[in-house]
Specification:
disordered C terminus, alpha+beta, Beta-Lactamase
Amino acid sequence: MIESIKSRSLRHLLQHYLDARGDKRMPSRRDLDPARLGPVLPIIWLSEYEAAADTFRYRLAGEEVNEVFGGSVAGRLLSDFVTGDRFQATNENFLKVLRDEAALLTSGPIYRCTDRIAMGERLVLPLSSDGVAADGLLGATARSALVDLDVISMDEQKTIYVSIDELVPLDSGRMAGG
């Protein structure tokens, strides 16, 4: 997977996730170290799965995430700020990360903002409060440029999933995976 990640911030996040995981299947929110994530904090979000709504409630979101949605998303369901077709597609991707215990990397068009699309990459990783079963998500979106809808469409988005079992840190500080 690391070969596919272009963003230095997302590489940093993945390395911290792997370090925080240690010998457990997945890290919990408590295992994450905000001091080590400092440079990535503006683009990070954390959410918990809410079975009754079959979607995710955001617990924390960085400044850049909140900016995209026009205000704080903390405490809100995904369906409160991502609507229509975009909600269905995003929720299905996030549910797959949770249920399959897989990392998700999306590249190309990543945010649709009115008549424009933000280009970049998104990394989503499962979290587990008990270290065994996934019950939350850690995600980050590194965006670069906004382009008009007539230049590119969301259909050009590329998405890959990699089992968390295939994510392994390397001694050199680089990671390998799927």
